[in-house]
Amino acid sequence: MRFQTLPGFRDFFPADLAVRRWIESAWHKAARNAGFEEIDGPVLEALELFTAKSGAEIAGQLYAFTDKGGREVALRPEMTPTLARMVAARGAGLPKPIKWYSVPEFYRYEKPQRGRLRAFFQWNVDVIGSDEPAADAEAIACACDALRLLGLERDDVVVRINDRRFVARELAGLDVAEADQADVLGLVDKLERDKSAATKLDDKLGARRADALRALCDAYPLQRAPELESVLNAARDLGVECELQPDFRIVRGLAYYTGPVWEIFARGPVLRAVAGGGRYDKLIAALGGPELPALGFGMGDVVLGELLAEKQLVPPTRRRVEVAVVAVTPELAGQARRLVAQLRSHGFAAEAPYGAPKLVKALRAADAAGATRAVIVGPEEWKDGKVVVRDLSSGDEKLVAATEVWRTLA
Amino acid sequence: MRFQTLPGFRDFFPADLAVRRWIESAWHKAARNAGFEEIDGPVLEALELFTAKSGAEIAGQLYAFTDKGGREVALRPEMTPTLARMVAARGAGLPKPIKWYSVPEFYRYEKPQRGRLRAFFQWNVDVIGSDEPAADAEAIACACDALRLLGLERDDVVVRINDRRFVARELAGLDVAEADQADVLGLVDKLERDKSAATKLDDKLGARRADALRALCDAYPLQRAPELESVLNAARDLGVECELQPDFRIVRGLAYYTGPVWEIFARGPVLRAVAGGGRYDKLIAALGGPELPALGFGMGDVVLGELLAEKQLVPPTRRRVEVAVVAVTPELAGQARRLVAQLRSHGFAAEAPYGAPKLVKALRAADAAGATRAVIVGPEEWKDGKVVVRDLSSGDEKLVAATEVWRTLA
Q1: Do A14 and B105 count as a contact with CB atoms less than 8 A apart?
Q2: Does any CB of chain A come closer than 8 Å to the CB of residue B204?
Q3: Which of B16, B40, B53, B105 to mutate to test the interface with A (most CBs of A within 10 A)?
Q4: Looking at the predicted complex, does its ipTM rise above 0.90?
Q5: Cβ A6–B67 below 8 Å, yes or no?
Q6: Which of A314, B27, B307, B349 is a plausible cystine mate for B123, CB 3.0–4.6 Å?
């Protein structure tokens, strides 16, 4: 093979793309049913747009380069900075809340591995301009609705959720210094996966305070987090049927979260995150936009696609054509093409062979293309303006007027 | 404004993206009705994939850079090299002809101007593995079908078409040396737009031969190009209703075309090209694929979008929500959300306010969001398990059982 895809990038052959389009269609449907409008931004942006949010060190994980005009640019690794720019440009004139979603591809220069590629599609759903718990709940409901549309059942997934305001109150109550909070939350985040995290937490905070944090991870005192309880109630009202599990370990490292933070996991031998989001009330302004509370989530196509394939939820690939029109003699090929035009203008996926294959071969090709019916244009029938419509599974045939073929097939 | 898009790149706000999605939906529909399957490839490819087709000098027009692994890479400027790679990888096992289409975004580092951006979407339709004229005709018919679906009428566009085999015969008949043919065709291509091209053609070939070429441009001798006549006939059979105009000036500079070459122009004060394609029988093998005849075309979103806007064919933006559910008192907000969940699960785009606005304000917001109906949850009606469904244009109201709201709205 002379040429290959770059590591971590994918070719989408028809069967592959059909899966991606099916996932995307669930994303579109869930978002639109919840009243979100679709946006998109450029694949390439000024590098500064991303470093302004994540710091200069993010450049090392991006496809960043200098363009021919001397601009420092990068392939987008996420949507939020672009979203903030768009809100800054037009948000002042829009009714609030702004409810936007997108299905962009993102690019990260990371080591490719199972579930993590260098280019992946991600559904992004954001609410800008509301600080109501029902807004957080709607984002969770929308994410769960897409998973339901894809065939996942209530017991297949769990939403683990926490609230950064509650976390901040608990850490303040334990006298954890501001400067230590990021480290401490990083260790809390790792408690489940990394045994050394518990020891490190002891070292950092002493046993008493570390125990207090571990106790919060074991049993969430929801009565002390009323803002989270409001979100959970509104999510239930909005139809979320899967488990909503308050979990102190869900902190989502990113510094800009200010309220509810949550991840949706697929249950299984290991929990796999399929979506994550949270409230980021200060970020739009920090990125040059207006001061508006905001929240959002992302759901990628890679882990989700693996999961749906494992559960055999991926539907069979659609047929390439519905109807094949076949001329019995080369002289009738033009008539066959006219019937194809008739069928296409009535919305059928139809085709005729380009050349003049023998009937048996043409019908075999029609079957391979997925056609369920063939229209056979033979010289005897054609003299009377008729053609044969053949059911390719049963073999049943009927004679119909050529001008009425589309009606017969409808 | 702190951040801007890069020159030649676009933000797609909801109204902008709705136009793009509408154009894309016509592309998808026309391609599927004609039996094409959708593929996609990576946005980023090895630079060599593009220089192998177009020469090293193409790199100057690309977003090309060295990635962090030291690879020379470029944002894709077109689909054909990727297509050739995909055919090389899997084509041998697929039934022929292969009928593939795609709707990728392409990137070129060119001076942005009206109708030409640095990032644009393009519909690509290709047939691989057929040398029949009906295959060329089907591509033309498919392109025309998309334009028809977008509202353009037969007199709005013209397909200008030529055949590189005929061109080669004519040039050979005039004893134009192989080495001069590219230059000569370049001048023929410019005859219409650049007055100096006629003089240059005289200088290059002498008046007799230049006159002969100009005569071909004035009147196309279709009887001497039977391969083109077959394409035209098949295209008519396949339902192409707009003018099919043989034109010796349509040569499409690209060296790899080997048969029919064509462009679709929108008529108007100036002709504007909205699509172009042709047969490239040697290219797949030259790019490392199998020896398969092939043809295809591209249709971009930028000029087409301008044209459709000028002709006022762009449909109004879809409503963000269909139904708003509004609680009259804050205590009923949860019930309103449960009705929202009911409506969404039945496929309605529905929402409730996140907070507890007054009824008048909520109804105004519902109207602004495009809702045509509101479901009003009031304390008196709710005692009986009922809600009011209000038609927001007529003001008509009716009382219905809460559990049956979705049925009432269907």
Answers
A1: no
A2: no
A3: B40
A4: yes
A5: yes
A6: B27
Residues 141-160 of A with CB under 8 A from B: 141, 145
pTM of the complete model = 0.96
Q: Is A163 on the interface with B (CB under 8 A)?
A: no
Quick one: closest CA in A to B21, which residue?
Answer: A38
DSSP strand pairing (A157-163 vs B243-246): unpaired
Which residues in chain A are contacts of B52 at CB distance < 8 A? 3
Domains by residue range for chain B, with CATH: 14-41+76-310 (3.30.930.10), 323-409 (3.40.50.800)
pLDDT in tens, chain B (410 residues): 689 999 999 999 999 999 999 999 999 999 999 999 999 999 999 999 999 988 999 999 999 999 999 999 999 999 999 999 999 999 888 999 999 999 999 999 999 888 889 999 999 999 999 999 999 999 999 999 999 999 999 999 999 999 999 999 999 999 999 888 889 998 998 988 888 999 999 999 999 999 999 999 999 999 999 999 999 999 999 999 999 999 999 988 767 899 999 999 999 988 999 999 999 999 999 988 899 999 999 999 999 999 999 999 999 987 899 999 999 999 999 999 999 999 999 999 999 999 999 999 999 999 999 999 999 999 999 999 999 999 999 999 999 999 999 999 98
